[in-house]
Design goal:
Length: 340
Amino acid sequence: MNKPDCSNSWQLCFGRFGSSMSFEYTEITDPLFVENKGQTGEDDYIMVRAKLYSHVPIKIPNWTPQAHCYTTLFKQYEQELLEAEVYPDDVWVISYPKSGTTWTQEMVWLICNDLNFEAARAESLQIRFPFLEVSLIHPTDTSSFERAKNTPRPRFIKTHLPVSMLPKRYWEVKPKTIHIRRNPKSVAVSYFFHSQGIHYRGSMDTFLRSFVREHQFYSPYHAHVIEYHELQDCDNILYLSFEEMKHYLPSVVRKVCEFFGKTYSKPELELLYQHLSFKSMRDNPTVNYKSRDPTKKGEQFIRKGEAEGWKKELTPEQIQLLDEWTKEKVPNQEQRKLFE
């Protein structure tokens, strides 16, 4: 009997449920998702749970990772994910999507590269700071893991992976890492417009209802943030928030400079603040990528960059939906401060 071809049809190989030595794959059977997936462009979404996680240094008692949302492409690249090399001179930026990642990447790259603005403007951030696992969620011409592997050292790596799915070598090497988080309502709005510019065909309301059910890429959202903040003995990680960067950028820059052992003069830092301003980032084609959807010619990766723009975008009912979601998912009052 011929072996079924998994590259084109995950269902052929796994049917409703599937697993490997390292990951468990589950179809999304939520009625709302099933009803809308054909119209919204989410036909190939699946939930993936890591089965090997004892090496993750987390403080949560009896912790078991939840399943996270990806596409059926995950199975094709799971070995490359597991075996991804990590080097001591790597610099990683980690976040849940739309948490201020691009802004943080540009800041980190410049601080670590002697504020070389000329080099930053000459090369796309996507080249300078490759997205490690994008092949898990979108078709790519070549493996994103291969591209990251071939990036000249010292490498700058972007990832949205949860703690349970980071390459095992990450925990052995512990490279310098920045983790950035953002208010969930801001994330929700930004994620909708971002997804709409790539593949999503549903309404804002449908997206939000899917988001709170944890059926958008990399969800569950709260678990991602909490698990990174509950790691122990990880002094290689510096934690930031989008809101902190928005309101106190000089303070954040000082913190990041200290973390990487860098010192710059006041005039040099003023140039950095100017480069990292919203207007400068929005007008900079090396960081503000155009929408991949040809029907949305005017839309770019960096849209508004506001700390509380959700107040203008969301209805009172949608705000309540997201607030109740956070209360339900984060009963611990101390942890809830991470989402303010």
